[in-house]
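ok so dumb question maybe but i'm new to this and my supervisor (M.) told me to 'just get the structure for histidine kinase' and walked off. so i did the thing. is this what she meant?? sequence i used:
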Amino acid sequence: MTKGISRKLIITYFIIIVATVLSGGFCLYVLGVNLRANARMRDETLPSMEHIKEMRTLMLEVKKLSNTWVYIANNKDQERLRTAINTDYTQLDSQLQQQALRWTSKQDAKQYTQIANENNRIIDSVKKVMALLSAPESYADDSLVDRAAELNTGIGKLVNANDKLLTRLIETKEQRLAEEQQIVRSLLDSLYLVVLFSILTVILFSYISLRFAKKNIVDPLRTLNNTILKIAVGEVVTINEISRADEIGQMHNAVSKMIGGITEKMNFAEQIGKGNYDADFRLLSENDKLGIALLTMRSDLKRSNEILIEQDRRLLDAQKLARIGNYFYNIDTGEFQSSTTLDDILGIDKSYPKTNVKWQDHILPEFHNLVAEKATTAIKERSKFSASYRIKPYKGGKECWVNTIGEYNYNEHGRAISMFGTMQDVTESKMLEIELNNSYKIAREQNNRLLNFSYIVSHNLRMHTVNIQGLLTLLDDAETEEEKTEFMNFLRVSSNQLDETLHQLNEVVAMKNSLNVSITPIALRKSIDHAIDLLKTNIDDKNAVIHNNVPADLIVNYNAGYMDSILLNFLSNAIKYSRPDRQPIVKVNCFKEHPDAENSKWILKISDNGLGIDLEKNAEKLFGMYKTFHGNKDAKGIGLFMTKYQVEAMDGSIEVESKVGEGTTFKISIK
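this is what came out, is it supposed to look like this??
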């Protein structure tokens, strides 16, 4: 059976191969003939025909120009005739002579040699005519004209005779070209027939071979293939054994036995998957490798399961000890999974809906932008997500600091689809870090203030001392009572200035030594109204308007003395440094820095339309001691310095926005 199938298939394929080789060989032969014919037409026949036609046209033109030379001489025709016989004819004849050497027809080459000889005779006669009538006065000599006319008549006859030879040569070339093209067409027709015959032969024998193969090989194999495909997708079907003795029958029966073994092993593997490591299983034979592998797998899984249980217990204990949990977030569905420790950090249980929206609810509002920016950057740069922020547990627990680390997974289009990472409760270490940073910040600021204060004290006291010493020297050298009286007045002025400086420095020292600052609830609007009342004279003098937009029920925890000092300084400066060409208008507002956050700072905003400050020049020294910017005689440079110290002593800060000629806005943060 197998031998018959093989022999018939071999014969069929041999016939197909022979037919293909023969048709291919004939195709190559026809293509070779066609290529050679095309090459002859391209390189030999067509160029020669074109040049012969050009030669015929040129000789007719020479005849015409020669006749013109004799009877109607003009410079333009004479010049063209010289070019035609000396240049055009020479080039064209040279090209045709070279092409004639490659012509396959000796008769054509011989015929062109005859034409070339006649052309040379014509050219010689033309040159004689040109020589006889080379000068204008030659036309006055009748004998020369008659001789030239006689030569011209001979030229006409020679050209006419040669034209017939050229015409006949052209016709011969065209006829031979048509014959070659007909041969090529005949060969192509034969090629089509051979190819068609080869195709039909291949189709016929292929059909016979396929019919035989389908009945004896394909159909039985298809049955086995369908069975194997079902097994491949997990569907185990039972097939009965058959009595066919060839290889296909053996394959069928082997598959039947294999399915029986698979069914038994599948049942055993199912028991292992359910965690039943004590299920019974019997090997088919000592060579049952799959069965042995299943038994080995059962032993390994049983041992690994015991190890995993112990490791999970230790990992859970370690996570609880370190307050660190893990999560998996599905971006497409918006859902997340979390470990037991993370659930404990978030204060959630099994009934809690684990969605992205719920996850964001835990993050305090002031950290929403930070977390969003970190996530956007991590996705854009394909880097790890890492952020520290505060969260609020679900069931009203104490707010805590967490460190979150995560890594995104991307699909084939580069879009982030999920995220895996850890979250650790770092409240204790974070609070210690914040406390250390605050202590360092306070120490650094106090050190800077001390250095600045010592510099100011040294500079200002030395300035007054030098001034007084100089005046005393002048007083000793005074010769009249008037000079002494004048210098004494100067000494009194310097003494008063020194006293004022010492008084100001004493206020600063007293303020810096106030370590225990009492904090009480303050009705902010009422404090602003009180400051406005104290400045009523200044307000009336400048016809100023102050809009107090702070709500009446707004209460802040602050030092009352500091608050009064801060409000008086900012409001008095707004009136003092107003523009003389417009009515001073001051607006006071107060709002939360983060409206959605429970512990957000308050922002006290004081805006005016006064002279403004050039921040590019004065930003760094704006709050410095004895720094003034508008040239007012009564400006001391102490107010903003003390105000900044008082605000910072209350754990606040000051921001400034200003444009020269438009006004200034101060934003004071209140904790």
